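Trying the structure run again after the queue cleared.
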Amino acid sequence: MVIETEIKDVLFNYPVTFEDVDNEILSETFYIVTWNHSEPFIMAWDFDEWQLVIQSKAPHMAKLFEYALFKVIDDYNNGFCNFQ
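Done. Tokens:
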């Protein structure tokens, strides 16, 4: 999957795979872009490979968002979140 973005010179591409994720959590429009000063960040769901693609110039930013996303999914699976 090619992700077109205005972020230039992306140096870090971090794929995150999910094996037991409720399909209702994800949608084909799942796409997050943030801009934090000099640390551009993009996150998109790759439906072809069934994985989350995180791209950032800063690896620690990608790891932080990976942790946050897993936390949200874990909370959802344990009944602490209700996505509507």
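The mean pLDDT is 55. Worth checking whether this holds up in the mutant runs.
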